[in-house]
Amino acid sequence: MKPPLRIAILEADTPPDDIVARYGKYGKVFRTLLEKAADELGEPGFSKDSLELSAYDVVTEQEYPDLDGVDAVLISGSKHNSFDNDPWILKLVEFTEKLLKQDRIRVIGVCFGHQIIGRAAGVKVGRSEGGWEVAVLPVELTEKGKEIFKQDTLSIHQMHRDVVFEYPEGVEALGGSPRCLVQGMYKKGRFISVQGHPEFTEAIVSYLVTMRNKQGIFNTEEAKDALDRVGNHHDGVAIAKAFLRFLLED
User: Fold this and answer.
1) Which of 41, 48, 49, 232 has CB 3.0 to 4.6 Å from 35, enough for a Cys bridge?
2) Residue 18: CB partners within 8 Å, gap ≥ 6?
3) What pLDDT score was predicted for residue 19?
4) What is the mean pLDDT of residues 103-114?
5) Residue 163 to residues 36, 123, 128: CA-CA distances in angstroms?
6) What is the mean pLDDT of residues 180-194?
7) What angle do CA 52, 54, 60 make, to 5 degrees?
C-alpha cells in the first residue's frame, strides 16, 4: 500500500467530557498517536503528512466511511460489550464482516475493536473469568509478535475484562498474558489487532481508573494497584509503528 494512507477511525465510544476537553474524542487521540508514529517510523519520505485520517461516530450517528475513499479502517476501544446485540453493535459487526470478506481495505482493531474483529471472524468473545486487566501490563510475544513489533517484550495500557477466546482460522498469534491468551491477532494483508490500548497515556488511564473507582467498578485496592503501574513504560508508539508498517507492506 502506497501513501497517502487514508485511514478511517471508527469511534465506538466517546470519552468522558474532561478527557474530550483535554485530548479530544478518540479520533483525535488516535491522530496524535499515529502522527507521532509516522514521524518516527524511519521510512524515507514518510511522515505524518503521509496520513489522511478521518473519524466516524458509529454509536450515536452510526456513520461509516465510503469504502472507495479509504485504504484502512481502525476500530477503537469502547466501554460497551463487544458481545452485546445493540443495533449499533450488530451494524458494526456486519460492516466488519464485509471488510474481512474483501482484500483491499486493511483493518486495525484496538481493545473493543480487536474483539469485534474476532466476533466478525466467527470466534467467541465474552467476559473473562480472569477479571480486569488495567494500566500498564506486560504481554508475552510470540515469535511472530516479536517480528511485527520489532522488539522482544511489550508493555501496553490495558482497560478490559472482555476477551477474544480463541484465534480465528488462519490468523497468527502475536502474544498473550495470564488473564488474556489472545492479546494480538495478525493476518497478512488483512488485519492486525491488539487487546490493549496503544493510544492511552498515563493521564488518560489515571483519570479513567479514578473515575471508575468512584463509580464502584474498581475497588480501592484495584485502583491503587493500577495507579501504581500507570506511569510505567508503555509501548504505544511502537505498536502504532507496527500498524503503519502493516499498512505499508505489500
Assistant:
1) 48
2) 207
3) 96
4) 98
5) 28, 11, 6
6) 97
7) 175
